[in-house]
Design brief:
The chain is an alpha+beta fold. It is built from four helices and three strands; from the N terminus they run βββαααα.
């Protein structure tokens, strides 16, 4: 409804991976008489939103890189440079899931799959 929201403070939280995020909290002034109350949010009090400033900055930076001339050129190359390799490994050679568990074991298994792919490419 175009209502201005007031800054009420910052909150730091830790993600499941242990990364600390700082979010800014903004609160609407008066949601009691708003016709969108209930459709806009489910809280009994005024609406509070969280804005991760660092995440928004990184998204904007990634968007600028993707829309740059170099980013466009790299995205055009991807469709015939990288994707067919994964499609070949998955579809033609039947690799759908890793047999081993754990980051180190999966890295080793993926390395063996990549070596096999490169040998097949050299042999052809």
């Amino acid at each position: 409804m175009g209502q201005k929201m007031d800054y009420i403070g910052d909150r730091t939280r830790k993600t499941t991976t242990g990364f600390e995020q700082t979010v800014r909290l903004y609160k609407a002034k008066n949601c009691q008489n708003c016709p969108l109350n209930g459709a806009c949010h489910k809280s009994q009090s005024d609406r509070i939103i969280q804005v991760n400033v660092n995440l928004e900055r990184q998204k904007q930076q990634a968007d600028q890189l993707l829309k740059s001339e170099e980013g466009i050129a790299r995205r055009k190359k991807r469709c015939f440079d990288v994707e067919p390799v994964f499609g070949n490994i998955k579809n033609n050679h039947g690799f759908r899931r890793f047999m081993l568990r754990g980051t180190q074991k999966v890295e080793i298994e993926w390395g063996l799959i990549a070596i096999a792919q490169n040998l097949r490419k050299r042999a052809a």
